[in-house]
Amino acid sequence: MNRITVSPKVLRWARERAGLGVADLEGKFPHLAEWEAEAAEPTLKQLESFAKATRVPFGFLFLPEPPEMPLPLPDFRTLESRRPQGASPELMDTIHQMQRRQAWLREDRIEAEAEPLGFVGSAKLSDNPAAIGREMRRIVGLNDGWAQRVSSWTTAISELRNAIEELGVMAVINGVVGNNTRRKLDVNEFRGFALSDPYAPLIFVNGADAKSAQMFTLAHELAHLWLGEAGEGLSGFQNLLPGGGEVERFCDQAAAEFLVPAAEIEAIWRTVADSDSPFEKLAGRFKVSPVVIGRRAMDLRLVERDEFFSFYRYYTQQEYRKKETGRGGGDFYNNQNTRVGRLFATQVFRAAKEGRIGFKEAYDLSGLNGGAFQEYARKLGVNRISHSTPE
Fold it and tell me: Which residues of 166-189 are buried (b: 16+ CB within 10 A; e: fewer)?
């Protein structure tokens, strides 16, 4: 049986890039440790299986050194979020999937002679970020009374995402690659990203993150779109703080004003300042996470940094504990509202119904096949889409 000589550094890189230890793979590749130690060599079939298990292009395994695999978009993350072995397959596949959706929707809108969205790229880094936050709030339609008609801060995330989609922005929140629950996204690697385009802008929020952080990331990535091409990129701020750089600082400040206007919180802070739970009390009023309120109070110097971070650590630990013990999952089709989005899905369904795209392409774009594709189309109000055989 022919054996293949492979660089142990490349094998180790492929395994670590996939976030796997030797123990994770030894059931399928019992001699992996020997391969990495150059004490044994794999067969061609074993190497093909290894490439599939680690989600690495097969040809890469024949390189003498681990390859450079640059991100396909600018990187605004902190150094702590950047993995030494490069971006995970999950992150890369998610970015590529979102880029395919954006490219398709852009072409579809241009063919329909749609007007470009004026707010994309309307801001400059020299602008006042708080003023941009207020402009974002006005354009999205969050007037001073919006919080009173939302039942809870958790539903506020859904309402805000829907309002953003009404503007023509694809707003995706997902904690896995597509619908594959075995391929989870790592919140330590990234929080979200923005893909700028005047016809088909897109923001992605890592749904594996705590709800308290998702709300802020959603607003933060929206601010990236206001900066246009200068703001396109990947975010990975820690503890609701930007990782440095003028783009992240700008978006951070704009998002803070967008969610919790300074004038409003300063006007009422004294009514809760001496209570045992000031952040929770104001969270109910603004319908955002108590963490966002605490962060805003810290920025405005209403509380000390130590007080905020002590609360942040406690609150997020409690939230993650609830998430781990919760049932999770949820309704499959309701999940598609955030994983695919009504805006994008409806356009794909209509294009398939009208014969402008084949079903193979529609399935690939939406991540839904056969009956699931038909059922979600029905739930979104698109009449039944008929076809004989998928192309």
Answer: ebbbbbbbbbbbebeeebebebeb
